[in-house]
Amino acid sequence: MTDDPIDLVRRLVRERIPGALCVVLAGSTAAGRATASSDLDVAVLLGDGGRTRRETLRFEGRLVELFLHTRAGLAELFASDAASRRAVLQSMYATGLVLVDTDGTAGWARALAEAELAAGPAPLGPEVVEAKRYGLTDALDDLGDAQDPYERLAVAGVVLAGSAELLLDHRRAWAGGGKWLPRRLLAADPELGGALLEGHRRLCASGDPAGLAEAATAVLGLVGGPLREGYRREWRGVAPA
Question: Which of 36, 56, 94, 188 falls between 20 and 30 A from 170, CA-CA?
Answer without folding.
Answer: 94
